[in-house]
Design a protein that fits this description.
The chain is an alpha+beta fold. The chain has one domain: 3-Layer(aba) Sandwich (Glutaredoxin), CATH 3.40.30.10. The chain is 43% helix and 20% strand. The chain has a four-stranded mixed β-sheet. The longest helix is centred in the N-terminal third of the chain and has 12 residues. The radius of gyration is 11 Å and the shape is globular.
């Protein structure tokens, strides 16, 4: 499972969530700014993989596209 960090009203955050839902990719969604701040997240969306690796920007879309191909 992945964790998506985002904020309400962020169009890219909504896109990432929609793509995960459309492709049955399990995720949790965090929009708590205190949690994001404690992890050093300054910009959203950020996707955290199960191994703790953080993805941002185009890397998120590339990752979702890889999962879609499976």
């Amino acid at each position: 499972m992945i964790t998506i960090y985002g904020t309400t009203g962020c169009p890219m955050c909504k896109l990432v969530k929609t793509e995960c839902e459309r492709n049955s990719i399990p995720f949790s969604y965090v929009n708590d700014e205190e949690i994001m701040s404690s992890k050093g997240i300054l910009h959203v969306p950020v996707v955290e993989l199960g191994d703790g690796k953080m993805l941002m920007g185009k890397d998120i879309i590339d990752y979702i596209n890889q999962l879609k191909e499976r």
